C-alpha cells in the first residue's frame, strides 16, 4: 500500500494536470465558469488533503511518543470547503458553484483510484 506522502505527490501531479485542463477548457469553450469552478474546487480539495496529510504525520508522531492529539484538522478542512463555496457564491460570473463542489471531491476520487490501482498491482504481483 502506498504511504500518505507518496499519495500526496500523486495528488499534486493530478492537480497540475487538472488545472491545465481547466485553463484550456476556460479559454477554448463557452463553459468557462464551470472549468474555473472545477479548478477552484480541486485547488481547495488538494489543500484539504495536504492538511490531512500533515495532521496524520503529527498524529503518528504523537502516537509513537505516547502523546494525545487534539484533532485531525476537520474544522480547518471544513472551513476551507466553506471558503471555496463562498468564493463561488460571491463571484458567480466566474465560478460555477456546483462544479466547485465537484472539484472539492476530485482529490478524494484520485485517492480512491490510486488505492484501487495499488491494490490491483499488489494482487497481481502475488500471483
UniProtKB/TrEMBL annotation:
Query: Which keywords describe this protein according to UniProt?
Result: Cell membrane, Membrane, Transmembrane, Transmembrane helix
Q: Name one Pfam family in it.
A: ATP-synt_I
Q: State the annotated membrane topology for this chain.
A: Multi-pass membrane protein
> Main localization of the protein?
membrane
For this protein, the parts annotated as crossing the membrane are 7-28, 34-53, 74-91, 97-120
Q: Where in the cell is it found?
A: Cell membrane
Q: Could you state one GO cellular component term attached to this entry?
A: plasma membrane
PANTHER family given for it? Answer: ATP SYNTHASE PROTEIN I (PTHR40035)
* Protein name in the entry: ATP synthase protein I
Amino acid at each position: 500500500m502506498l504511504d500518505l506522502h507518496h499519495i500526496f505527490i500523486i495528488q499534486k501531479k493530478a492537480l497540475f494536470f487538472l488545472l491545465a485542463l481547466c485553463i484550456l477548457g476556460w479559454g477554448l469553450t463557452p463553459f468557462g465558469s464551470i472549468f474555473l469552478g472545477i479548478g477552484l474546487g480541486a485547488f481547495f480539495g488538494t489543500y484539504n488533503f495536504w492538511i490531512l496529510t500533515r495532521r496524520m504525520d503529527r498524529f503518528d508522531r504523537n502516537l509513537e511518543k505516547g502523546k494525545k492529539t487534539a484533532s485531525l484538522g476537520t474544522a480547518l478542512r471544513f472551513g476551507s470547503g466553506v471558503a471555496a463555496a463562498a468564493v463561488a457564491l460571491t463571484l458567480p460570473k466566474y465560478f460555477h458553484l456546483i462544479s466547485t463542489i465537484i472539484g472539492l471531491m476530485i482529490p478524494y476520487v484520485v485517492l480512491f483510484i490510486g488505492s484501487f490501482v495499488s491494490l490491483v498491482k499488489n494482487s497481481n504481483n502475488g500471483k
